[in-house]
Amino acid sequence: MPEAVPMLDSPVTSVEQADVVVVGARCAGSATAVTLARAGHRVVVLDAAPLPSDTLSTHLLWPAGLAELRRLGVLAEVEALDAPRLTRAYADGAGYGIESPFPAVDGIDYAMCVRRTGLDGVLARAAIEAGADVRPRCRVTSIVWAQNRCAGVRYTDRSGAVVEIRAALVVGADGRHSTVARSVGADQPFLTTPSGRDCYYAYWRDTTGNPRHTAAQWRHGADLGTAFPCDDGLVLSLVQPPAVPGRSGPGEAERRYTEAVDRIPALAARLRGCERVGRVRAATGIASYFRRSAGPGWALPGDAGHFKDPVTAQGIRDALHYGRLLAEAVTAVIDDPRALDRSLLEWERRRIVECRDIFHWTNRLARGEAMRPLEIALYRSAATDPELARITTGIFSRTRRPAELYTPSRAARLVVDAVRDQRANTRAVLLDLALEIRTGARNWFTDRTALRGNTPPLPPPTRVRRPTPTVPESRATRGR
């Protein structure tokens, strides 16, 4: 059940009217706001943080993510931030290196790694230029309900005043710890998979001569590490060692990051001569999930509704993509509650169905264990088979499906190769094959149950008496 909304200590100082309130001004929120504002709707965007500002993010943009920026009309401005174009993908596992170009998406055949302060600044400016009213340092405290419909929000502005905005649609683009999700009772996922990895990253001042056109990933033992050249002459290096529950405290992130880098010889060599810039950032206790993401008058794009472990770097693309699609789905029906709710449910189903494959693929890579025999056989084959390498890179770029790697003929060849390579330990290959069969069956069942796209309805919200506004409704957001 959604939480009861408590009485506010402070009276409401003003009531405003908008078509849409977007909570969160980063990737999903800005994509939604830009698209709706350009369509002529009155959009207010609220964000608790100052803008622009940094946020926890690995911020690699595959070609599909850059294509979304182009659709929003901001790719040129993002490129002006001077992050290098990454034209090659390199993955190394068990000593086998796979290199391939990126598949083109709408003519874009390169990736970029852009720090979030610059990227989010570009997106916020685009929302303002489109006509949205973007308000930083404004913290949403509760949802306004009307006859079991979400009808707006209340927030505290930077001066401490309590403001109410009534709107036909509230978009919760406020991340994994979403206030909107909690307020509508959707904060508990209907499907969740804990990650087997923790995540730590830091920036390094790159040295002359390092390959600044390559996005690289290494697997060594149970550890995973990356090096992504980014803007300002930096390289983002992320490590994902196996998760260690309950380990935190001063210096823990620094220690685990440094130890993981040292355990990955190729990553340590890539960073040799580079100077660390700033502190180590950490994300631990990670879980991938799907939350119920649409209901009467509300929707949850971005991480508020669906999150995948950062091991596949899908978050920004999906936030931009499904934020834009949400806006396109509702723009013609904002004033028709029944049609609006149908469109929201169709949008929610679409995201679930389209993200199932990459969700399972991400959870596979997030298991936090050493490479198994069949995975080693795949790397060994892809190192000499350009088509396999292209499929692998295409999965991350969302132009190919994981099933293309595991056709019956390819799967059989991988088993034969693994047995040939592991003659002294055939049992390990057979156990790995059994695990793959069980995992495939479990994913098939999940797709036809929890991820079939027909999510169960939420219970009606619990409502309590609310304080009466002390001032008449403002027209601040009527027209532009």
Question: What does it look like?
Answer:
The chain is of the alpha/beta class and 480 residues long. The chain folds into three domains: 12-59 and 115-193 and 287-363, FAD/NAD(P)-binding domain (3-Layer(bba) Sandwich); 199-283, D-Amino Acid Oxidase, Chain A, domain 2, CATH 3.30.9; 371-447, no CATH class. The chain contains 13 helices and 22 strands. It has helices at 27-38, 63-71, 75-79, 116-130, 179-183, 252-263, 265-271, 315-330, 337-365, 373-382, 386-397, 408-421, 426-447; strands at 12-17, 20-23, 43-46, 60-61, 88-93, 96-101, 112-113, 133-135, 139-146, 149-156, 162-166, 169-172, 191-194, 199-205, 214-220, 223-229, 234-239, 275-283, 287-290, 294-295, 298-299, 306-307. Strand 2 (20-23), helix 1 and strand 3 form a beta-alpha-beta unit. The chain is globular, with a radius of gyration of 23 Å. 48% of the residues are buried. Residues 1-9 and 464-480 have low confidence and may be disordered.
- Shape assignment: globular
The fraction of residues assigned to DSSP E strands is 15-25%
**Which quaternary structure do these chains form?**
single chain
Number of domains: 3
Compose a concise summary of this entry.
InterPro entries: FAD-bd (IPR002938), FAD/NAD-bd_sf (IPR036188), Geranylgeranyl_reductase (IPR050407). The protein is of the alpha/beta class and 480 residues long.
